[in-house]
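User: Just a sanity check before I run the rest of the batch. Below are the structure tokens for the first item. I only need the designed sequence back.
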């Protein structure tokens, strides 16, 4: 049975009475169930807008809409501006194989070892090639060539094989990266990967440790806990596990316990992030003992991520990102 989506009203009404946290308006929008027809209309509108405005102005307009300030991309100062700089001027320097959820596994195995890789049941070029009878009771299907194209199967009760296969067809037909200007995805082969469903006791999904690595040094991590539950949290912790005063959209957990393998997580993230001016390394530790690699991301939230409570933190984090020498307008795309 697929994990059910909860809307903001459900999350609000199912909270413990003593839970006084409030959702950011953008969080409510993110958590609201998506109407496929509305989503298709938005994609069509964005496509037309990008074609009409061009890549540069389209990017600035979206950043202004999400962040509330007009960005300076050519001479970036904030973290989001530097993300946009990478997308506009340095996208050719992003290795596509490291954004590829299948190909990156070879890099991880060489760099930190195979023990950090999740178990894979199969890799498929076509939806018709997926033999569901050979997959276990629980599993995850992911498109290897983009983001937010996942299917979580936590048990087979009510499992709709035809609908799942059709969804995989749509994933494979999707060219990710054009509407968000992350052009390094264009050369990644379209495939579906079936992985082990990582379960964490008492939680629908394991806590997600999104480690921000600058020049091989992990500065902080966004920790997403209790995902797909009424008590979802997004907490920013420093390298030495101290609560930092900013987050993205969701309430934070000021009493978040330090995972037993935190030091190992830091070591793995820094080894994988070595050689890049910035990369986000996502890790899991569902049993509290082992560390499992998730993915490497070169454009966190596509450069459209709010810093709460104020945008000043966007500029403070931006100071950590020293853009590599030699990148510039020679890679500019219009």
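Assistant: Here's the designed sequence for the first item:
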């Amino acid at each position: 049975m697929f994990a059910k989506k909860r809307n903001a009203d459900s999350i609000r009404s199912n909270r413990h009475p003593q839970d006084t946290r409030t959702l950011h308006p953008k969080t409510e929008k993110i958590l609201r169930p998506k109407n496929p027809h509305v989503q298709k209309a938005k994609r069509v509108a964005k496509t037309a807008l990008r074609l009409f405005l061009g890549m540069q102005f389209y990017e600035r307009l979206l950043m202004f809409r999400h962040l509330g300030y007009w960005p300076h991309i050519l001479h970036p100062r904030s973290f989001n501006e530097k993300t946009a700089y990478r997308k506009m001027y340095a996208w050719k320097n992003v290795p596509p194989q490291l954004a590829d959820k299948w190909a990156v596994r070879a890099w991880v195995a060489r760099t930190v070892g195979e023990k950090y890789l999740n178990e894979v049941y199969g890799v498929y070029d076509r939806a018709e090639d997926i033999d569901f009878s050979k997959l276990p009771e629980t599993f995850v299907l992911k498109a290897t060539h983009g983001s937010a194209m996942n299917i979580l199967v936590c048990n087979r009760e009510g499992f709709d094989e035809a609908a799942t296969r059709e969804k995989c067809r749509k994933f494979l037909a999707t060219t990710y990266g054009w509407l968000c200007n992350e052009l390094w995805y264009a050369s990644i082969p379209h495939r579906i990967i079936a992985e082990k469903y990582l379960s964490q006791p008492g939680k629908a999904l394991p806590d997600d440790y999104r480690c921000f690595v600058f020049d091989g040094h992990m500065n902080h991590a966004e920790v997403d806990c209790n995902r797909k539950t009424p008590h979802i949290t997004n907490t920013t912790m420093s390298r030495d596990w101290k609560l930092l005063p900013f987050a993205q959209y969701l309430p934070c957990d000021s009493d978040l316990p330090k995972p037993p393998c935190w030091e190992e997580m830091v070591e793995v993230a820094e080894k994988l992030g070595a050689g890049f001016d910035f990369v986000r390394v996502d890790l899991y530790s569902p049993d509290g003992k082992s560390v499992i690699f998730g993915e490497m991301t070169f454009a966190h939230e596509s450069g459209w991520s709010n810093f709460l409570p104020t945008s000043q933190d966007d500029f403070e984090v931006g100071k950590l990102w020293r853009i590599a020498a030699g990148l510039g307008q020679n890679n500019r795309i219009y």
